[in-house]
Amino acid sequence: MLGIGSTLIIRFMGIRIEDVAQATHVSTATVSRALRNLPGVGPTTKKRILETAEALGYIPSPTAASLASGHTHSIGLVQPDMSRWFFGKILESAENTFRKAGYDALVYSLPDYLGPVRQRFNANVLRGKIDALVVLSLFFDPSEEEQLRSLKVPVVFVSVEQPGFNYVGINDEETAARACRHLITLGHKHIGHLSGQTNDKCPVAPTQRRRNGWHNTMQRFHLDSSDDLVEAVTIMTASNGYIATQRLLDRRPDITAILASSDEMAMGAIQAIKERGLRVGHDISVMGIDGHDLSPSFGLATMAQPVSQEGTKAAQLALASITNQTEPKTIVLPTTLVEGPSIGPAPTS
């Protein structure tokens, strides 16, 4: 039986490593080292082996190669949903970064919309299959965190900060506060907030931090920040933003501006306002957070976060941690105010 680091004997379409060795007049160990780019093989011999292997159609088994190297060359990506814009952008940029480094992405979904309690994380799904893990917009409870640590691979959290792990994201509270301050400088005093779900068990969730940014800023300027100015939804989509805005305006018709926790909810708010015969940016201003690709089409003012860069940074941090497992790192990226006709001065009457 072959041990770790010894010669790989693999069949692929009838071609064995011995066939490559025989054709190049070297040992199977030399072929194995050349194919795995290990030292100890001269450049001329290595070139001849690689050319012969390609000509014969020999491709080493990824599983066997993993056993020999101790690495799977796959990185896991755990996220709630692949269909929504934010998650798709992160996945795209992270996967591109992995691919350039010679790694595959193994995606594991934990839907957060299948009821009051989401599906629980099961480490066995990924055990032995990955060299590192990126977790997107999910918070793990203590039992799930224990499962996560049992994988014994580097982990990077994106968007939701999990104490004790690598983190890449933005300052959600300051981003919402800055958006709110901008609306206040335009003369708005009655500013509603469209929020995502909040969870006392996860005070670091972006939805909670963005609500805090709105609430604390309104209080700082001695403006109304009562609960009836907040409408929360389970999933931050345009359709939910539309419904939430209808409820909010029914309850507080004095609102002159709305700060939404996501651009998608802000898009729904724009539609709801228009259906009431009101002018967006004149009668009621709307501002989002995210920098969605479609925001310019809606004329939406937003606090844009560098989503693709977050995915890239998370992937780079995961890759670097595979070979250099240091203390957890935190990377906080800046957000940018993007003006748009969806906001304007508060109406005079």
From TrEMBL:
InterPro entries: HTH_LacI, LacI/GalR-like_sensor, Lambda_DNA-bd_dom_sf, Peripla_BP_I
GO molecular function terms attached to this record: DNA-binding transcription factor activity; transcription cis-regulatory region binding
Keyword Transcription: yes
Name of a matching Pfam family: LacI
Keywords, alphabetical: DNA-binding, Transcription, Transcription regulation
PANTHER family: LACI-RELATED TRANSCRIPTIONAL REPRESSOR (PTHR30146), TRANSCRIPTIONAL REGULATORY PROTEIN (PTHR30146:SF138)
Protein name, as recorded: Transcriptional regulator, LacI family
Organism: Bombiscardovia coagulans
Lineage: Bacteria, Bacillati, Actinomycetota, Actinomycetes, Bifidobacteriales
